[in-house]
Amino acid sequence: MFHPAFNRREFLRAGALSLFGLGLPQLLDAQTRAPRGRAKACILLFMWGGPAQQDTWDMKPDAPDVYRGEFRPIATSVPGLQICEHLPRLAQRAHQLALIRSMTHDNVDHTRATHFLLTGKPPPTGSLADDWPSYGAILSKLGRGRGPLPPFVSMMPVVPNGSPRFVESSHGQGAGWLGPVYNPMRIDADASLPDYRVGDFALSAEVTALRAGGRQQLLRTIDQQVRGLEQQADVQAMASHYDRAFSLLARPEVTRAFDLTQEPRHIRQRYGMNIHGQSVLQARRLVEAGVPIVTVFWPNDGITNVSVYWDTHNRNFIDLRERLCPVTDLAFSALLDDLDARGMLDDTLVVWTGEMGRTPRVGQSVVGGAGAGRDGRDHWGKVFTTVLAGGGIRGGVVHGSSDRYAAEPASNPTPPADLAATIYHCLGVDPHMEVRDRLSRPVTLCDGQVIEALLR
Hints:
The protein is α/β, with parallel strands linked by helices. The chain has 13 helices and 16 strands.
């Protein structure tokens, strides 16, 4: 007999012949008896490109100018804590933030370093299908989420003529070996545009509800003919996505979740009427509608002759001052205020991070990086900063430190595995639970340790 919480496909996925993951008993146990953290959802703000730690969250005003750069530190709402002058709104909300100033790993390749931060595991040597499952994929596998919306959404706005795009080849963003059925729903649309629409979450004028119902019945008929193929991951994923698509079309609350025009104008403006700001607002609406995890990737805004993403090999100070810091300062602070005003901050974990940091010295180039101009900083994984808020995180704290040049951790070096363990803990997932890989071998979900100093 099927468990009432599962449909046929979910039962097949979870049973003894399931693909790559937990068996049905373990899955039910994880859903009903796993230790619960404070957070019901997570919004992960991913700053693709690698923000310069010493020009944002970890200023070094006493270092020589070739290291400290051009920006001044400013006081925050936490006595003794200073951050960059170009993050003034976040400075006023520092009492809500936990800064990890000692994040560290050994990879300076954008597409591979992302795997560290999105999974807590080192990048694999193979293809994207060999990746460790991302946080969202694991939550999907554990049956998180409520209502018809997908449990895992990635905001990845596509900008015409915007290239390169790390998204196409970056590791760690999807389900990896867990199988494509647990991949995120990916939103490429630019939420700042007046005609913003997400895929086909509305029946076109020529497709009546009756015709849509007929199409669904036809798919059911086809489905009966391919039941024997359901153990194949790609077929299973396609069937699941068909079911989800019709479920979405049938629910008006789903289309409302993607309708940003329902937000008061002043709220939209508070986030910033730009690609990133409106994507962050969309993330809040999705979490409010029951989506457990949304990742908002920093977009390539399509402007030429500037840094791509936070990858400031040239124009480091110009682009941070004019394009990067102001947009993240506005959107991140608006998200904190909005979640707090709606009573959602205590149970929504917010994570702000890039995949790496930048070189200590301006103009410095490193092996494996892409070089740096006289006013730029190259890739640097040895130390950088990640910021957390809400969802059981204690605000106004700093964990770890870097040395006087922001070159190495000086205290509490923090690998991505520890960040992953903390994220899972806050979301009520045992980070050391056992899962099974595609060969049915038992593996530990996360090898890191929860950063207790960050928890309330």
